């Protein structure tokens, strides 16, 4: 297993924290929880069949483009990774996602360091972004997503 201390990721590839993903059993209830607690708004909502999720990107009303958001993730069906997560661990933080400006170069670098990426090629994520995930055992126990938004 690679040492997370020595991943040596070229810093120019990483733009910012894109989002922290939270597994929730009910999307509407979770949106309402954050709205009433912090006044946060739902900036974007979509269903991703391949990932088995329906999701909402929430955060303060006035967001800068590099402000990290919270991604609420509810399962679409029982086979969903989110359904499995909820069953094993209950609602809570499921992943952290970094935004990159070059997912291909970053992926190549990570593989050269022995890091396992979950997909051989990026898949489609929020808003049409290209995404992949580092295995949590290779990223300090965190399911780390990398995302390159659509140009
Ligand atoms: C599992 N493990 C985790 C974890 N899930 N550790 C930290 N955070 C998590 N979320 C740990 C387990 O505890 C276990 O450790 C080890 O990893 C292997 O787990 P497993 O039980 O064998 O594997 P599964 O079946 O739980 O799958 C885990 C895996 C899966 C990460 C492979 O969740 C996956 O494929 N995730 C990527 C896709 C995904 O998460 N999609 C939903 C978000 P021990 O020590 O017990 O062996 S979609 C999304 O995010 C998109 C829309 C987007 O943002 O654009």
TrEMBL record:
Alphabetized Pfam families for the sequence: Glyoxalase_4 (PF13669)
Keywords: Metal-binding
PANTHER family linked: METHYLMALONYL-COA EPIMERASE, METHYLMALONYL-COA EPIMERASE, MITOCHONDRIAL
Family indicated by similarity: Belongs to the methylmalonyl-CoA epimerase family.
Positions of the VOC domain: 16-149
Metal-binding is among the record's keywords: yes
GO MF term list: metal ion binding; methylmalonyl-CoA epimerase activity
GO biological process, one term: L-methylmalonyl-CoA metabolic process
Name by which UniProt lists this protein: Methylmalonyl-CoA epimerase
Keyword RNA-binding belongs to the record: no
SUPFAM superfamilies noted in UniProt: Glyoxalase/Bleomycin resistance protein/Dihydroxybiphenyl dioxygenase
Organism: Corynebacterium crudilactis
């Amino acid at each position: 297993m690679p040492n997370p201390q020595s991943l040596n990721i070229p810093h120019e590839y990483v733009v910012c924290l894109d989002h922290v993903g939270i597994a929730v059993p009910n999307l509407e209830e979770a949106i309402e929880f954050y709205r009433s607690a912090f006044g946060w708004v739902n900036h974007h909502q979509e269903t991703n069949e391949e990932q088995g999720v329906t999701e909402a990107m929430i955060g303060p009303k006035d967001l800068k483009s590099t402000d990290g958001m919270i991604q609420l993730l509810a399962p679409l069906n029982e086979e969903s990774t989110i359904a499995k997560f909820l069953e094993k661990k209950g609602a809570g933080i499921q992943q952290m996602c970094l935004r990159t400006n070059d997912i291909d170069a970053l992926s190549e670098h990570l593989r050269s360091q022995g890091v396992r990426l979950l997909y051989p090629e990026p898949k489609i994520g929020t808003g049409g972004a290209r995404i992949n995930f580092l295995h949590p055992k290779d990223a300090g126990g965190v399911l780390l997503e990398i995302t390159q938004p659509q140009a």
